[in-house]
């Protein structure tokens, strides 16, 4: 029999199974719930910023429209430039995107950012 420490409490206990890591199922559940909460809290903050970005772009750009803004204007308006949701191919170039917006020249060293708002089609 092998003695190990419970990751939740740090208390030593004797393993009853080869793959046992916690002294009780309750400790395992509490530990995993704590890890999940940390992840949920992180995602909640990131999603809040993404939603704020989306609201701002929805006000500034109409569907199927391309507009250019200064980086400073977007930052002062509360846009978090470092956050994107995915990359998308546009005119044979990989671009960062935020939901249905394609940020055409985000990574270039330019004082402006050109943004294209794609139209979402409903079925």
User: Oligomerization state of this entry?
Assistant: single chain
Q: What structural category arises from helix and sheet content?
A: alpha+beta
Compute the number of strand runs: 7
Helix and strand string, N-terminal first?
A: EEHEHEEEE
Fraction of helical residues: 25-40%
| Rounded mean pLDDT score | 92
Termini separation comes to 61 Å
Count up the helices: 2
Strand order of the largest sheet: 3-7-6-5-4
- Strand fraction: 25-35%
Number of domains: 1
Shape, per Cα inertia axes: elongated
Characterize the main sheet. 5 strands, antiparallel
Uncertain regions: pLDDT < 50 for 5+ in a row? none
Radius of gyration from CA coordinates: 23 Å
Describe the model:
The protein has 123 residues and is an alpha+beta fold. The protein has one domain (3-117). Helix content is 34%, strand content 26%. It has two helices and seven strands. It has helices at 25-60, 71-76; strands at residues 3-5, 12-14, 65-70, 86-90, 93-98, 101-103, 112-117. The strands form two sheets. A five-stranded antiparallel beta sheet has the order 3-7-6-5-4. It has a two-stranded antiparallel ribbon with strand order 1-2. Strand 5 and strand 6 form a beta hairpin. The N and C termini lie far apart (61 Å). The model has no long low-confidence stretch (mean pLDDT 92).
How are the secondary structure elements laid out?
Blueprint: E1 3-5, E2 12-14, H1 25-60, E3 65-70, H2 71-76, E4 86-90, E5 93-98, E6 101-103, E7 112-117
Antiparallel strand pairs: 1-2, 3-7, 4-5, 5-6, 6-7
């Amino acid at each position: 029999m092998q003695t190990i420490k419970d990751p939740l409490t740090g208390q030593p206990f004797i393993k009853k199974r080869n793959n046992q890591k916690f002294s009780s199922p309750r400790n395992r559940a509490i530990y995993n719930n704590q890890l999940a909460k940390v992840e949920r809290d992180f995602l909640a903050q990131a999603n809040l910023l993404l939603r704020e970005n989306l609201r701002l772009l929805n006000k500034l750009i109409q569907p199927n429209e391309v507009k250019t803004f200064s980086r400073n204007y977007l930052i002062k308006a509360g846009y978090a430039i470092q956050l994107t949701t995915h990359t998308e191919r546009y005119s044979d170039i990989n671009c960062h995107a935020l939901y249905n917006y394609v940020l055409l020249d985000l990574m270039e060293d330019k004082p402006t950012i050109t943004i294209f708002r794609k139209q979402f089609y409903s079925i």
